[in-house]
Amino acid sequence: MRLNNVLNFRDMRRYTKNPLEVKFEELLPLKLKDKVSGKGDRSKERACVHEISVMFACFKKNEFDQTRCSDEITKFQACATKNYADKFKRKQDRREGNISTGKDNLTPREINYLLKKYPNP
Predict the structure, then answer these.
(1) Residue 110: partners with Cβ closer than 8 Å, 6 or more residues away
(2) Closest by Cα among 104, 101, 107 to 39
(3) What tens-digit pLDDT sequence spans the chain (121 residues)?
(4) pLDDT of amino acid 42
(5) Residue 10: left if φ>0, alpha if ψ -120 to 50, beta else—which one?
(6) Residues in contact with 34: Cβ distance below 8 Å, sequence separation at least 6, in sequence order
(7) CA angle 41–42–48, rounded 5-degree value
(8) Rounded CA gap, 6 and 15, in Å?
(9) Which segments within 3-93 are labelled E, that is strand?
């Protein structure tokens, strides 16, 4: 029965000139779930990739002489220590249960905590 409704909707969308004439039929209740999965939590961008690529390009250009590439090495090391400190702070905040307010992207654990604290009516 549901598949038939979906096929009819496709036909209506194709042949309807006015989108206001399309009739909405609720198949599932329109409400949020109680938790999020967190499958897309992994960051695709890795830390210090630009710095390490610049460092290796300098090594290749100068035949792997570290004295000529000392500036690039220090930039990479500074980026790595900053990334390590940020990761340690996030892990410590997660252990303590602190929620990072004002941040653009919340972790799935923080979202699940907020959904438990403020459930759907």
Answers:
(1) 99, 100
(2) 107
(3) 455 554 555 555 566 667 677 777 888 888 877 888 877 666 666 889 999 999 999 999 999 889 999 999 999 999 999 999 988 987 888 788 777 665 667 778 778 888 888 887 7
(4) 64
(5) alpha
(6) 115, 116, 119, 120
(7) 135
(8) 14
(9) none
Token representation of residue 114 = 């907020």
Q: Tell me the C-alpha distance between 23 and 14, whole Å.
A: 14
Could you tell me how far CA 69 lies from the centroid of its own chain? 34
Please, what sign has the CA dihedral across residues 73, 75, 77, 83? negative
Angle 76-78-82 (CA atoms, 0-180°, nearest 5)?
A: 115
Write down the pLDDT at residue 14: 61
What's at 96, amino acid-wise? Answer: E
**């459930």: which residue's tokens?**
119
- The one-letter amino acid at 118: Y
Task: For tokens 């990334």, name the residue.
Answer: 83
